[in-house]
């Protein structure tokens, strides 16, 4: 029998569960775990500069790899600093385990230093939050934590470890060959329900498949595309489903919504008569006005979490199932029901609107228009690039203009949307997929929230590229469709020798040992991107391309998906359309 100390056994559990990377900030109340962790030859620990940054790094790592992210901190503010990251992971169904130190159990009620009930604080934003009070429970608590994080709709777990529990002299009998990971079942769909879904699709004239983030999490993109091709059904991913189908695929219909969307997608959606949602949430920024969104069309909702079905509106048919198993079952039922279908009028309609209801991106204006930035990104980077972006006007432009071709290659904190997410998430993504080029698209305000995590990447020689859309204007909340005066919003610009658009971000990068270059004209963007990719890899540090952008570019958002033309001025259309109109 292999007997060892309880904290050594905890580290063995982490290793056996496949953990290779952990983020954290050491502190007095968590040092016994760190001492045990220092003996591991498998787990690499990265000391971040802020516990929230550690959660976002673990989040980015989990999204790009499909593994469970791990973040560690001490007692008190370390745990409270993790709450934003836990909430983000909970909202986007990301498996993560956060471990906090805690004051000894005997003094938790005696004003102990940095003693806070982090379990109760974290409970609303985790799948499970637990304080371990007995050393003998440690091994199986960690086993259960990994099971909970992965099972069903994935999500975060917080484990709180009092110092006396960590320091226990108890030895346990632990053998990973015998005490392996806890298993769990993925729910399979009812055959009758799947048969009804296929019947509804075959009976519809203009059906749509709508994969959400659940298809990405289930690694079900291949099944999705195979089903769509067999039945010739257009596919409209939600924003969190970007990458589930290549955006140059003939059946790609675009993203529906009131912000991160395309005109042609909204127009096509309004013509549809059946929508089959798979692993999606019908979130508010997607649906807008529910009366308009629902209309006269029918809806099927397939989700792994039975509590999600009917949460926003009652579907015509709800199916509880893992996304991959559901799509496999749908494909097998389709094979048995109908021969492969040829593209019809509905697929032709998708191609027609995809080629006409487009927006102009080839602006030559100075300051640079954001649309031009995304045109340059699409042309310069290939389909294997992993993009990371967060929240704000630049996220909306990204959703409208940026092309994605593969699952787990577009990472975004969709539901919670914390500013600052992308900088540490780039660190986690690059550590998870070191062979990939990782590019973070950031806003100037968000960049400043957790910019200190750039220093972590410099310290550990982790290269990635940041592209900053800098309007120094808090542009999202100043959008014209928001009926409020925004005089109280901070104007981030100033007149200075280096930049009229706020602080010197290039200087900030260089002060941390990273690299930066400022761009003022659209024709300079490509050369700056070439420099950033080359210099980042050569120096093994992050490189920033800061692009000075127009302040008041409107992001063409509506309050409901039927307002597809309201924010689309005629001059914002492709010159090719004008030429075609003249030709007719």
From TrEMBL:
Could you tell me which residue ranges the Thiamine pyrophosphate enzyme N-terminal TPP-binding domain spans?
Answer: 5-120
GO CC terms: acetolactate synthase complex
**Thiamine pyrophosphate enzyme central domain segment(s):** 194-329
Task: Write one Gene Ontology MF term.
Answer: flavin adenine dinucleotide binding
Give one GO biological process term.
Answer: L-valine biosynthetic process
Q: Indicate the segments forming the Thiamine pyrophosphate enzyme TPP-binding domain, all copies.
A: 391-547
Please identify the protein, giving its name as recorded. Tartronate-semialdehyde synthase
